[in-house]
Design brief:
Elements (H helix, E strand, L loop, with lengths): L8 E3 L7 H6 L4 E4 L15 H12 L3 E5 L4 H8 L6 E2 L8 H10 L6 E5 L2 H10 L3 E5 L8 H19 L8
């Protein structure tokens, strides 16, 4: 059970994830978290670098769906200017939003990666759904109230994984 919290991959940011790398693995779509994965949790809009990343994925026919536990207003305001489909109040790590994203994009779970900054929501939810998971370092150093609690639990899990030799990266 504890291995469900272990990501398949770890990168410093989404910018280390290229369309070429994804396509070489047969990946056709991305399910990504929003806050502290793509931008800081309190940044309302995408950065120019992130917009270019979105465009690179689109040019390479890699679909993106944002799946966020945040409210509709936040997720819609961020996603709509870029024409990116989204699911708000996703209740991750529950599987419903992941299944909905797969259905909307018309892809199999083997053709998708889940990208997120939290073990307890993004990684656990993606792993439970049988999807390849990529953990990114949080964009911001600050978090909302609930996320602060999650980060404490994550530190315990990451330390346990390290001691068992299951991960080699540093925070």
């Amino acid at each position: 059970m504890i291995k469900k919290f272990l990501p398949d991959q770890h990168v410093k940011s989404v910018f280390e994830i290229s369309p070429e790398k994804l396509k070489s693995r047969g990946i056709k779509a991305i399910i990504t978290d929003l806050d502290n994965t793509l931008v800081e949790w309190d940044r309302p809009n995408a950065t120019p670098k992130l917009i270019k990343w979105f465009d690179d994925m689109k040019k390479n026919n890699i679909m993106i769906t944002i799946v966020s536990n945040n409210n509709e207003e936040r997720v819609k305001a961020f996603s709509e200017p870029h024409g990116i489909p989204f699911i708000f109040q996703a209740r991750k790590p529950m599987g419903r939003a992941f299944r909905k994203a797969l259905a909307q994009m018309g892809v199999k779970k083997e053709e998708v990666v889940v990208i997120g900054d939290q073990l307890l929501t993004d990684v656990f939810g993606g792993n439970r759904s049988g999807i390849h998971t990529i953990l990114v370092v949080p964009v911001a150093k600050t978090d909302g109230f609930i996320t602060k609690f999650n980060r404490q639990v994550e530190r315990i899990l990451l330390n346990w994984f390290r001691k068992k030799g299951m991960i080699q990266w540093e925070d």
